[in-house]
Backbone:
């Protein structure tokens, strides 16, 4: 697959220019690595002059689950090319529910947009629109109904694991699927794993599926998410996940007893690093998710981790680091895999 390799500072502007020129292939995700963003190109498309100064590179990429080509066609009479691009980029399908961001000014046409989505995605039964950002302690977004069946509960399947959830009551992001797969593949036989901020259980379930002999404790504060997590454990007939409802800071956790701690709360995981450092074994691994400046993402993230490590009397070494996804044009979500030493 051909990508345009663009310095991050030029990323958002170039993305918009490619979109307007019809040269951005929305069928593939945009990725970000070492100060560059990689913008997927439509095969044979002519680049706008401003973009042609950047290098094009071949990279492996997985096509998005739902090819938006048909969707772009269905919307062509309703939206301009730029509006279509913005809508498609914001569009997620969780189970049989589609969630979209209605481009500014298009609210009067939103029902038609919802109906168009239903027509092209046979597996979508409900279309909802975003009414704001993820917010509050539970990281939940307000949603409005657009078209189809008026419901918010669905079953989503990831890496062979079905999960039931209510998109209006719990956090969920399909965009973390490959990160969950990566983590599950790192878990070794017999590990004891702690997932803080577990939601409806996607990390815990992915690990349980991959490693039936791992023992997983999954802590979550939102009672609705815990209810779904329990349902999902039963649905998959797993017997190696212990769901715990409560605040990660307050639930009793045996010190130094976990081989691995996962912390998928990028907004404020650093405030809980002391909990993770106490729970992990000497030589164990902490997966620390955080938001950082796109210009120096790993430096900033490591600084946060080292400060907390010093306070906790441990030392950390980076096993691996990666950008998980762009969060906004200037901010990225990163993960540091931190090896923790207690001596
Ligand atoms: C960004 S979501 C991640 C959920 C899940 N791991 C996933 O990937 O879908 C963060 C989760 O942490 C939970 N949470 C926030 N603060 C918490 C706390 N102090 N203790 C336990 N869970 C908390 C929220 O309710 C939310 O479900």
Residues:
């Amino acid at each position: 697959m051909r990508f345009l390799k663009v310095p991050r500072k030029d990323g958002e502007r170039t993305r918009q220019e490619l979109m307007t020129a019809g040269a951005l292939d929305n069928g593939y995700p945009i990725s970000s690595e070492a100060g560059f963003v990689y913008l997927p190109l439509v095969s044979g498309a002519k680049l706008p002059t401003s973009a042609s100064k950047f290098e094009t590179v071949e990279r492996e990429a997985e096509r998005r689950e739902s090819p938006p080509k048909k969707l772009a066609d269905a919307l062509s009479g309703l939206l301009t090319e730029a509006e279509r691009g913005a809508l498609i980029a914001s569009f997620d399908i969780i189970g049989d529910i589609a969630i979209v961001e209605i481009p500014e000014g298009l609210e009067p046409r939103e029902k038609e947009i919802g109906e168009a989505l239903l027509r092209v995605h046979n597996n979508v039964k409900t279309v909802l629109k975003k009414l704001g950002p993820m917010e509050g302690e539970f990281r939940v977004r307000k949603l409005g109904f657009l078209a189809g069946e008026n419901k918010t509960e669905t079953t989503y399947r990831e890496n062979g694991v079905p999960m039931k959830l209510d998109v209006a009551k719990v956090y969920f992001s399909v965009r973390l699927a490959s990160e969950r797969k990566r983590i599950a593949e790192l878990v070794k036989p017999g590990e004891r794993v702690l997932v803080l901020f577990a939601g409806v259980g996607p990390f815990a379930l992915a690990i349980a599926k991959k490693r039936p002999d791992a023992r997983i404790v999954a802590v979550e504060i939102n009672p609705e998410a815990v209810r779904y997590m329990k349902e999902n454990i039963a649905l998959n007939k797993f017997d190696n996940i212990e769901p715990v409802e409560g605040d990660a800071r307050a639930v009793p956790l045996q010190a130094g007893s976990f081989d691995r701690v996962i912390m998928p709360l990028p907004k404020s995981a650093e405030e809980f690093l002391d909990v993770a450092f106490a729970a992990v074994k000497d030589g164990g691994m902490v997966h620390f998710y955080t938001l950082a400046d796109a210009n120096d993402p790993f430096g900033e993230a490591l600084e946060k981790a080292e400060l907390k490590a010093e306070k906790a009397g441990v030392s950390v070494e980076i096993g691996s680091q990666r950008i998980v996804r762009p969060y906004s044009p200037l901010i990225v979500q990163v993960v540091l895999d931190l090896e923790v030493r207690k001596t």
About this structure: The pocket of S-adenosylmethionine is lined by residues 137-139, 171-173, 176, 197-199, 202-203, 219-222, 225, 247-249, 264-265 (CB under 6 Å). The chain has three domains: 2-58, 69-151, 158-341. The chain has a mean pLDDT of 91. The first strand starts at residue 2 and ends at 7.
